């Protein structure tokens, strides 16, 4: 396609100076890259996320087990304090039998089900006598131990 165009920078004399120019189409790359991520980039991101998860998940599991053990130990402390308070009010001596949980229920804050809170890890509590340390059934089977020291 040829077009006549007035050249710039020249004074027009005798009707002006004109030059013939041709219009060329711009070169465009044949494989235009579309917006988005390649498969390799996505795989790298997934691998990094997997690596972070592999590092973080064991720490979360350990933190959960430690929190359950701490809650269980605090429950055991409350049971021990309730047993001592019950023994004082009932004038019982060390070694007197306790009917757990019936004797201790008035001395412990009950949960929503109106019962003494249980071990968060699923264990059961036992307190047989006044002065004896209350125990959890998971005392030696899990780490960290659910036991008063």
Give the topology:
Blueprint: E1 2-6, E2 18-22, H1 39-90, E3 125-126, E4 135-136
Antiparallel strand pairs: 1-2, 3-4
Describe the model.
With 149 residues, the protein is α+β, with helices and mostly antiparallel strands. Helices cover 35% and strands 9% of the residues. It has a domain of 102 residues. The protein contains 1 helix and 4 strands, in the order E-E-H-E-E. The strands form 2 sheets. Strands 1-2 form a two-stranded antiparallel sheet. Strands 3-4 form a two-stranded antiparallel sheet. The protein is rod-shaped, with a radius of gyration of 41 Å.
Beta-strand share of residues: 5-15%
Could you name the ranges where pLDDT drops below 50 across 5 or more consecutive residues?
none
Strand order of the largest sheet: 1-2
**What is the alpha-carbon Rg in Å?**
41 Å
Largest sheet: 2 strands, antiparallel
Order of helices and strands: EEHEE
Total number of helices: 1
What is the overall pLDDT average?
86
DSSP summary, beta strand count: 4
From the N-terminal CA to the C-terminal CA, the straight-line distance is: 97 Å
- Helicity, in percent? 25-40%
- The structural class is alpha+beta
């Amino acid at each position: 396609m040829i077009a006549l165009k007035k050249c710039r920078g020249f004074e027009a004399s005798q009707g002006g100076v004109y030059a013939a120019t041709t219009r060329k189409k711009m070169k465009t790359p044949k494989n235009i890259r579309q917006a988005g991520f390649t498969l390799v980039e996505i795989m790298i991101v997934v691998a990094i996320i997997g690596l972070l998860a592999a590092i973080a998940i064991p720490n979360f599991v350990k933190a959960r087990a430690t929190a359950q053990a701490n809650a269980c130990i605090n429950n055991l402390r409350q049971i021990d304090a309730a047993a001592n308070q019950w023994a004082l009010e009932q004038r019982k001596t060390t070694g007197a039998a306790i009917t757990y949980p019936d004797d201790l229920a008035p001395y412990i804050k009950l949960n929503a089900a109106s019962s003494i809170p249980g071990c968060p890890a699923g264990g059961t509590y036992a307190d047989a006598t006044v002065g004896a340390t209350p125990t959890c059934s998971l005392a030696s089977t899990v780490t960290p131990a659910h036991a008063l020291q």
